[in-house]
Amino acid sequence: MFRLPRYIEQAFEALYYESTNDEKYEAFASQWKGVDGEAFRKAVHFGHGDDRVVALFALGSSHDPQGIEDVVPFLHSAERVERWAAALGLANGGDRRAIPFLQTMLTEGISTDASDETDEYAFWYGLNRGNVVALLAQWNEPSCIPFVRHAVVLLWQIEQTTKDHAFFDYRYYDALAHLLGSQGAFGALTGIPFSELHRKVALVYMALGALQIKLPFHDLSLSRLLQEREEQSHVADLLSFRFGLSEEEREDCIQHAFEYQEERNHAGEQFWQRNADADAWQEDAQEDAQKEQEFVQPTLLAKYSQYTSSSYNEVYALAWSPDGTLLLSAGEDARVQVWDAFTGAVRTTFAHHKAAVTIAVWSPQGDFIASGGGESAVYVWNAQTSEVVTIYTGHRSFLYRGLTWSPDGTRIASGSWDGTVQVWDAFSGEQLQVYRGHHGVVSSVAWSPDGQSIASGGGYPECLIQVWNVQTGATLLTYRGHTREGTGTFLLDGQEEPYGASSVHSLAWSPAGTYLASGGLRNIVQVWNATTGQEVVARRDQVRSPLAWFPDGSSLLSPQVGMHSLERWNARTGKVVTPYDAQWLLRVEALSISPDGKRVAVAGWRSVIAVWEV
Fold first, then answer.
1. CA 224-226-229 angle, 5° bins
2. How far apart are CA 461 and CA 331, in angstroms?
3. Tens of pLDDT along 239-262?
4. 422 within 8 A of 437, measured Cβ to Cβ
5. Distance CA 231, CA 250 (A)
6. 0.85 cut: is pTM over it?
């Protein structure tokens, strides 16, 4: 998935944390026809549950005056999760009206009463308490101090009562102590009957707060925070000046702070260790599976990178020119570049896009390129001069992998997260056809080699593939293979997920047009008869999109998840023909096969583009 505006990503991450993935974005966009301000406003006023929570956070953070005012009334909602989402979103956008609500959120729901744990969002409240502290820290607001102290007292009382309460998190203790230090409230913990271990750790965090050393809530380990000798010296001075510790006491605090933290956190560490052991077992299993395969080392012809001087930029699309001498790449930096495929020399750079470019395709004759992505506009431009020929603005939301030329090079079909596939004249921009056969986002589009049909793939939760007549718009075939529920689990963005309906992120007709291959998000690739819809091959074995046909139509190429490899596999049987070692790419974002089938271009992590012989 390409990068959305940061405030949108933060809204989804605030609710879903590490389980945020393309499916979450697609499900929201399918319901509300996009992931923009208009869609969020609709979800706030007419949605409920997760959709409204995400929309409240996004609008509150958006810096859109109207959107922010739509969020403010929800600070007083009867639903706790809506109050929290509104306050977190507004605070994330720097709106001080959130402060009194954040203060009450420090302790809301913290008690020895387990009834709150029945709330479906109970775990989410616990995770977000650290965000509440971090947001309050951005303001020097003295009124926060009694609320923070009260939260520390409640946590201490709970710890004396039970060790297994859902709200208990030692990181929250540490973040609160850090916040008190940053506010200069050095006496706030006086009178709380802490154990000596708790007191020493709290004093160190208060000193770090006073020094304005920022803390990442996900990793508050003192072994990381006190690595620098200069930082240790500053902390020691504060411990002496503010808390009256003797030289021996302050040295003890600093030298043994990590050990004290570990001892205090011992119960929690046991839990995390169990999970770490499980993860290690899974990694070992993957390594064993990898050893069983004999990978072919490809012959590298060229290697180059699409990046700016300031940062790496993911490459989302690659395509060989029809004559096999040039490559185009498009990515996160909103640029499309045309390269000499063998020297890596840049021939042309197109920089008219205003957001990430997720798809770029050559015209069949190789004279023009069409590109689109994180904006609703699609550009058609001269491949040699980068001069703009057409800007198509018929869509209301962005494109993912939905862009294809007609075989005669006169028309373009574009599929968008607005739920439509639109056919238009490539050089005048005149709209010729709008297909509305999907009931959610459209993630991929492919034009048949005979020019008569278009296949379009739906995103989550629809996950249908529609084949339809270009002239009439009539649906010819609906393929439901990606909607099937599978058994077992697989890795998705580093998280173990159950098999299930899978977004259609890649579509490719065989060269003769008799078969259609589809690649899904949930580690599924399939080949099926394009006329009857009969399934030929279905693979659910850690292989996923993107995918591409070899010119002879006998096999396809796609990445193998978790093993950092590419597989050439038989299109009739699904059997792996050649596994290619690609560990140095770390992961495969895009791939393309040269017109003669002798070379492969692959884009990996950190913008690396590689060309090798097959």
1. 130
2. 26
3. 998 888 898 888 888 777 777 777
4. no
5. 13
6. no
Please name the helix (run of DSSP H) or strand (run of DSSP E) that holds residue 422, with its range, or none: strand 421-425
Find how far residue 245's CA is from the centre of its chain.
47
- Tokens 């956008």 label which residue? 93
**Cβ-contact 40, 55 below 8 angstroms:** yes
288-311 burial, b at 16+ Cβ within 10 Å, e below that, comes to eebeeeebeebeeebebbbbeeee
Q: Which two tokens stand for residue 472?
A: 């009439």
Mean pLDDT check: name the lowest of 13-22, 115-124, 188-197. Answer: 115-124
Tens of pLDDT, residues 24-47: 999 999 999 889 999 999 999 999
Backbone angles phi, psi at 605, to 5 degrees: -65, 145
Mean pLDDT in residue range 182-186: 92
Looking at CATH, the fold of the domain delimited by 299-613 is given as: Methylamine Dehydrogenase; Chain H (2.130.10)
CB atoms within 10 A of CB 467: 22
Specify whether the backbone of 493 is left (phi greater than 0), alpha (psi in -120 to 50) or beta: left
3-state secondary structure 502-559: CCEEEEEECCCCCEEEEEECCCEEEEEECCCCCEEEEECCCECCCCEECCCCCEEEEE
Q: What three-state secondary structure class fits 574?
A: coil
Half-sphere exposure of 305 (CA within 13 A, CB side): 13
Cα-based distances in Å from 450 to 34, 469, 513, 563: 32, 11, 7, 37
pLDDT at residue 487, rounded to an integer: 53
- CA neighbours closer than 13 Å in the CB half-sphere of residue 241: 10
pLDDT at 269: 44
- CA-atom Rg of the chain in angstroms: 28
Q: Where are the domains of the chain?
A: 1-105, 135-268, 299-613
CA 529 to each of CA 281, 413, 514, 517: distance values in angstroms, whole numbers, following the listed order? 40, 22, 6, 9
Q: CA dihedral in degrees (258, 245, 197, 122; nearest 10)?
A: -80
